[in-house]
Design goal:
- The structure is a homodimer.
- Chain A is of the alpha+beta class.
- Chain A folds into two domains: about 290 residues, Aminopeptidase (3-Layer(aba) Sandwich), CATH 3.40.630.10; about 140 residues, Alpha-Beta Plaits (2-Layer Sandwich).
- In chain A, about 35% of the residues lie in helices and about 20% in strands.
- Chain A has a six-stranded mixed beta sheet, sandwiched between helices.
- In chain A, a hairpin with a 2-residue loop joins β2 and β3.
- In chain A, α2 packs antiparallel against α4, α5 runs parallel beside α13 and α12 crosses α14.
- The longest helix of chain A has 18 residues.
- Chains A, B: It comes from Granulicella sibirica.
- Chains A, B: Keywords: Hydrolase, Metal-binding, Protease.
- Chains A, B: InterPro entries: Cyt/Met_Dipeptidase, Peptidase_M20, Peptidase_M20_dimer.
- Chains A, B: GO terms for molecular function: metal ion binding; peptidase activity.
- Chains A, B: This is Acetylornithine deacetylase.
Chain lengths: ~475, ~475
């Protein structure tokens, strides 16, 4: 025990002494535009994988390798695997992260270029700063600190698995977990892809919404037509999509797809009570995070309930037709709406998609041919707070932040957490260090550097505790 | 009179003998990608102007010059002017055309590249083949034939005015006509930017719909947001636009903007009767031109009435958000709908825009900030058939085609025709030689070459008759 305490102290000190170098390394990783949705970045995504693999090797992990993945319709991006498994009888932790990032568009809204990380104040700005390169790097750096402090040993068995397709649906890792789960055998997973409820407030995420991401394609005329000559006779796919979308969700934010709310499981009374106790100023949230004139969403539910525990439907873009500057008078042959739904516990992607598809087809406007397709999906998740790993995380964060840790849910989806439950039969500790205003998936994404360093220390303390 | 008949015969023969060369010249013009909506083609648009000016000079017109234009917010494309005014006492004809073209997108639907003209069968395929380079070239070639046949003289006074901004609203020529009308003093204008009702059927267009082209911009959150984290609290601009559009037009095609139909002037009973007599097979039209499962539009009106004499509303594209392949889970800060309305006689662009804007603002969804802006507009037009120029055109086409000429309207808009009425106080003969399936503004635009040659002969005969 004495040795463990000394090693812990040494690891924390090492992380503190090397903090600037850790940030420099992170910058190098952020400079790689590993946008997994964009065909032109194929080489960059792979380069990010190799960057991570090289560092895992350098810090002393073993069996470091790239695991190639592929799906039915395309070659995938590799998983990066590493392990250190030299303490039989101790638990094994599976550290998960992803090295791919969202597209950076719209580029003209960035104050500094998305792939030239810039530190302004205490924040580092870049695409992927917090989602998830910065948070993934905390894992790597915590392992490095423990390895140095332990003279080449870790206090716990560790496997690392990193993916490069989180932002495009994560099919590769899902298939690997499903088919080769024995290669990831562990007792608990650690995922740092969530956020603190408020700056300085240690937060564990114990629930996530699931999702289905779909495209609704509407086809009208065989070819693009001139709207002067054919307006009045030809069906317009954009007008049809507008009519459909207006029937999917009412102006209060209630989803109108029949049956959609039937299986929705309510949060427990205890959970609702705890959410009410969280420090939350709705007006401040509206002004600083959302920035709209008013908040929207289902009447009768709090913001937390609406974003964590209620299904929602959003439209992300409507490709097709003419979107350049100026005027083109076309009735396009087709138009598409990218529509996603967030799911909450007891809803399933398959059933929700079937409900959506059936309803959209039933309200198909005259003259329009409709195709509804699912691009990817993820199950909703609730993690029990009643296990030793969550308790150790609660304690580790309390120590680092000097405050009681709170439990929240997330409105987003991390499908891999559901895969870990289903195929590896292990719980996941979701210990994330982002902030609500970190601009995830948006221009000017950032990571608050003090949280990067607190995150490393929290993970060091948690890994030490899990191995104690 | 004998001399005139001989000159006419010689001009027609010259056009026949030189038909292949005329097509080669047209090909050269079509190779210039003079897309006036696209900033990257600025040099090409000007090159097309210079190409036309050089040819007008070569065939013997005088005072050939480029007239620079500009609007409040950008430099414009030049007008090309030329004249030949040596027969005092004879009428002056103003030949109008435009040398700019629509964007060629979507490129992957073209069977041959849009700016590499290709003849397949009896058609020439290229962007601008019929709209309007091919039709404008008929004017130039008719003038060349008459000039050669007349030994350096024409049978009538002629001014030529070509513009390079027809596809972006034609503000430059509109301003020039308004402010320098005396430089275009004429008795009648000739515009060839319309089509035959059916192949082989000589057709004069005596009415056009007007239009307003608008953008409806919806703003929700201050910045793009993650739909997982904020779905349920943040307003979504695409959903808002869908809700708005669904309230602008019902599923039968009726426009729901209050007051919009109030001023609509019905066609005369004679006109409706003539339209009923036109050779028109609705099922053939649906299948070969529109290609949709059914036709749409206001119940109780024929296709001709719906496309020529009723206002319509169309959505052309909805820029904003994420439109790439795959999934991006964003609630965009803003989205825009490109929405145009076609106007019929007695409606005015200003009043229609005010009605649209007022209604859209009145149905603005919660949390959304709306801006409605007009990009450009044109008046609806009806031309009297009771004048000598229209009668001469009727006769010229009857001679060339060997059939009685029919009178139709067009569903599209040619704003310059309204400007000629308002500022030059002259009627316009709309003698066009396109075909209904020429794919105007769409991929695989074409011009049926026999109609190119018939058009040249019709214009030769008409100019000769006007000067007789």
């Amino acid at each position: 025990m004495m040795g463990e305490t000394m090693a812990l102290t040494a690891a924390v000190a090492f992380a503190k002494d090397n903090g600037d170098r850790f940030v420099d390394e992170l910058k190098a990783l952020l400079r790689i535009p590993s946008v997994s949705t964009a065909p032109e970045h194929v080489g960059d995504v792979r380069r990010a994988a190799e960057f991570c693999a090289a560092e895992l090797t350098r810090i002393g992990l073993e069996h470091v390798r790239l695991i190639e993945t592929s799906t039915a319709d395309r070659a995938g991006y590799p998983l990066v695997y590493a392990d250190w498994l030299h303490i039989p009888g101790k638990p094994t932790v599976l550290c998960y992260g992803h090295y791919d990032v969202q597209p950076a568009e719209p580029l003209d809204e960035w104050k500094s270029p998305p792939f030239e990380p810039e530190i302004r104040g205490e924040n580092i700005y870049a695409r992927g700063a917090v989602d998830d390169k910065g948070q993934m790097w905390m894992h790597v750096k915590a392992l490095e600190a423990l390895m140095v402090a332990g003279g080449g040993t870790l206090p716990v068995n560790v496997r690392v698995i990193l993916e490069g397709e989180e932002e495009v649906g994560g099919e590769g890792i899902a298939a690997f977990v499903r088919e080769h789960g024995e290669q990831l055998k562990a007792d608990v997973a650690l995922v740092s892809d969530t956020e603190l409820f408020a700056d300085g407030l240690p937060t564990l995420c114990v629930g996530l919404r699931g999702m289905i991401y779909t495209e609704i394609e509407a086809r009208g005329p065989r070819t693009d037509l001139h709207s002067g000559m054919y307006g009045g006779a030809a069906p317009n796919p954009f007008v049809a999509l507008a009519q459909i979308i207006a029937k999917l969700k009412d102006e209060d934010g209630k989803i109108l797809v029949p049956g959609l709310y039937e299986k929705v499981q309510k949060p427990t009374d205890d959970e609702l009570k705890a959410w009410k106790a969280l420090p939350f100023d709705e007006e401040h949230y509206r002004e600083t995070e959302v920035g709209s004139t008013v908040l929207t969403g289902e009447p009768g539910f709090s913001v937390m309930e609406r974003t964590w525990a209620r299904p929602t439907l959003e439209v992300h873009g409507m490709p097709g037709g003419f979107i350049g500057a100026g005027a083109k008078t076309v009735i396009p042959a087709k138009a598409t709406a990218k529509v996603s739904l967030r799911l909450v516990p007891n809803m399933t992607p398959a059933e929700t998609f079937a409900q959506l598809k059936g309803f959209v087809e039933s309200i198909r406007p005259k003259g329009i041919v409709i195709e509804v397709r699912m691009l990817h999906s993820g199950d909703p998740i609730v993690v029990s707070t009643d296990n030793e790993f969550v308790r150790a995380a609660t304690e580790a964060m309390r120590t680092v932040f000097g405050k009681e840790t709170v439990f929240v849910r997330g409105g987003g989806s991390i499908p891999i957490v559901g895969d870990f439950v289903r195929h590896l039969k292990i719980p996941t500790v979701m210990m994330g260090f982002g902030l609500p205003d970190d601009n995830l998936h948006a221009p000017n994404e950032k990571f608050h550097l003090p949280n990067f360093h607190r995150g490393i220390e929290s993970i060091i303390r948690w890994l030490q505790a899990v191995g104690a």
